[in-house]
Structure of Pentalenene oxygenase:
Amino acid sequence: MRTDRPVTAPGGVPLLGHLPALLSRPLAFLDTLPGCGDPVRVRVGPREMYVVSAPELVQQVLADRAGYDRTGPLYAKIRAFLGNGLASCPRADHRRLRRIVQPAFQHALLPHYAAAMTDEAAALTAGWRAGQVVDVTHEAFRLTTAVAVRTLFSAGLEPRAAEALRGALDVLLRGIYRRVVLPAADLLPTPARRTYRRALATWHAGVAAIIADYRARGIDRGDVLSLLLAARDEDGRPLGERELADQVATLVLAGAETTSSALAWSLRLVAEHPDVERALHAEVDAGPAGAPARWQDLPQLPYTARVISETLRLYPPAWAISRTTTRPTELAGVRLPAGALVVCCLYLLQRRPELFPDPERFDPDRFAGEPPRGAYLPFGSGATRCLGDRFGLTEAALALATVAGRWRLRPAGTGPVRPVPRLVLSPGPQPMLLSGRVSGPAG
């Protein structure tokens, strides 16, 4: 039945709408939406957004780039941190920027990047000891930021500078979700706002210093930043200073936070599913066999890849992709005005039971074949699909195989992990107990 009025999600409160639920229990709230219809109207204070999760509607929104663009107040908040990078720029800038950035992620460069991934995974796990409790969310973030810095800036950074960038990134990622959902967070003179603004200043100054150093030295170091400095668009123009800084910010985020989330979730899920753990250990024992996994080992690690894919199905880092309507339009019979915020919820899409039977179950063998068309979009879709998808999948697989080859992990805390929605869907702190594996050299 066609209608001009979408169903409004239940549980709203006067004035605030669904804001309390989005701040305190966002995923539990989202889980209530599929039964309401598609799209579902959600109220955030005086604002409205329309949530969709049916594959045909998600595809319609993401494919119609003229009718649905990355504009509006939400993207203005994101660009305050990321700038006008490839992950946040509107359609008018996207084609030019994608052509400039794309060469840095060509397949021929992946073996080179993978060597850095192997080295950093080996360095991280070399510091682990049997009987030690580590926060795998923090450890995964340390690993992926180290890889991002090393592949972006091969000359490396001073440890203090690298740690300052990592710390600033962590603060910004925690703060941006709150600012997107609660715009007034930037207006209140709270300690949290001061901390966020200091982190933003540290981030921008750090990135600017790195770029200035590269320009001053004028050496092609064969890394991503060197490629970006040398890149020209179809009119022969290089990236401007701000454009360059914006791309660096986007690539660090994509290379660090998204992959660390996938790795941290996979370590937890493997530990909670003994049958998956046994299959994973058997595979790595027949391949890398306790040594750090390398690029050339990947063809021998298909089950490892399936573990990562199933993790990304359950907990997609880009759990919600938003667009703003550029003109009055119709979506599943619902009339939307220009300027309406539409949220494609990949977290819900990839848990729909008609697409993935028993969707809450962790089953890597779902990916022994191809998933249903349009049902699995952890890297987005179409022209705005993440350029670094193969980079991230390679890093996550190498890191998971390296850990599984030497260590068995068990949750050390009590209770389930509570996902922490930031710009990506991250697990919160999750302490895990390390024990050396009998079949591999123990730490």
